[in-house]
Amino acid sequence: MAVTDEAIEKIKDMIVSGALRPGDRLPKESELAAGLGLSRNSLREAVRALSLIRILDVRQGDGTYVTSLDPRLLLEALSFVVDFHRDDTVLEFLGVRRILEPAATALAASRITVAGLDALEQQLDALGAAPSVEQLVACDLEFHRAIGQASGNSVLSSLLDGLSGPTTRARVWRGLTQRDAVSRTLHEHRAILAALRDRDAEAARSWATVHIASVEQWLRSALGEPA
């Protein structure tokens, strides 16, 4: 592993230094191994590892390329990792979302387009006044994803996407067990949308905080955790 780690670091240095840029094709394996002072086996392992985390793209019969290095692509690995969370860490994921989600929503208040606002409203209208819990949670994910993208910060948006999985089950559980969960969620979505339409960043931030905190507060109560 130490040899493979060294190979990974050397390829990383080439990318960070600009010797290899997004979209560039890597030299032939034999040339690259010799140039970096590596064995071909350790280079191969390094390329395999870097392709798994979307740094490199191995194209059969064509060669190996540096990917676009777009944050959305690179942070896909985060979604994979957080899927291994334990149930007792869901509150921690919600705590992170309570920090990031309001910030993204506040940014979106000044950046979201009228077309984006209309799309959010159409989504809420299509959901109706009495959706199933599953429909509501699916809409919730799309609603916040669209707002995250409208923040204009692709890293922030991708982080929120990556963190959404662990909290989905908690939202379903809450919807099935808390009497007013559906109506409260619909109300909070409408309030967030109204703040975005008003271009009121602080109101948007506040409603997003309320929205996430209400799930967190319910889960703490359900698990018997101290507030």
What does this structure look like?
The chain is elongated. The longest helix is centred in the C-terminal third of the chain and has 24 residues. The protein is mainly alpha-helical. It is built from 11 helices and 2 strands. A hairpin with a 3-residue loop joins strand 1 and strand 2. The termini are far apart.
Distance from N terminus to C terminus (CA atoms, Å) equals 44 Å
Mean pLDDT: 87
Helix content: over 70%
Q: How many H/I helices?
A: 11
Basic shape: elongated
Question: Can you count the beta strands?
Answer: 2
Q: Identify low-pLDDT runs.
A: none
Question: What is the succession of H and E elements?
Answer: HHHEEHHHHHHHH
Instruction: Give a quick account of the main beta sheet: strands, pairing sense, barrel closure.
Output: 2 strands, antiparallel
Question: Strands of the largest sheet, in order across it?
Answer: 1-2
Q: Over the alpha carbons, how many angstroms does the gyration radius reach?
A: 22 Å
Strand content: under 5%
- Class by SSE composition: mainly alpha
Protein name: FadR/GntR family transcriptional regulator
Keywords: DNA-binding, Transcription, Transcription regulation
Domain HTH gntR-type: 1-69
InterPro entries: GntR_C, TF_FadR/GntR_C, Tscrpt_reg_HTH_GntR, WH-like_DNA-bd_sf, WH_DNA-bd_sf
Please outline the helices and strands.
Blueprint (H helix, E strand, L loop, with lengths): L1 H16 L11 H8 L3 H13 L3 E4 L3 E4 L4 H4 L1 H7 L7 H22 L2 H14 L5 H18 L3 H24 L3 H17 L3 H23 L4
